[in-house]
Design a protein that fits this description.
This protein is mainly β and about 120 residues long. It has no helices and eleven strands. β5 and β6 form a beta hairpin.
Length: about 120
């Protein structure tokens, strides 16, 4: 059973926009932070943006001013609006949910990843 499900992604030309969405399973009863990470070929996974339970956001320097993270607390969803995309943004994007399932300790849950490709 996939506890974190992503949607969106795809291919776009430089300067274009894409929107990623992520939904956490209702079995994750207590969610702290939700966010997005990405991994380009040959590189380590890196943080893109996060939003915590209080609404505070964190962005990687490389995406500040171009990407916006938002969260629907009632639906346990998080979205990433990506504008002014650059070829350097090409990567597999992963949704991360830090939370707790009943009878389990707090941990990170990951989506399966969605490909974003930006062509020049």
């Amino acid at each position: 059973v996939q506890l974190v499900v992503e949607s969106g992604g795809g291919s776009v030309q430089a300067g274009g926009s894409l929107r990623l969405s992520c939904a956490a399973s209702g079995s994750i009863v207590s969610i702290n932070a939700m966010g997005w990470y990405r991994q380009a070929p040959g590189k380590q996974r890196e943080l893109v943006a996060t939003i915590n339970s209080g609404g505070s956001t964190t962005y990687a320097d490389s995406v500040k001013g171009r990407f916006t993270i938002s969260r629907d607390y009632a639906k346990n969803t998080v979205s990433l609006q990506m504008n002014s995309l650059e070829p350097e943004d090409t990567a597999v994007y992963y949704c991360n949910v830090n939370g707790r399932r009943r009878y389990y300790s707090t941990q990170d849950y990951w989506g399966q990843g969605t490909q974003v490709t930006v062509s020049s």
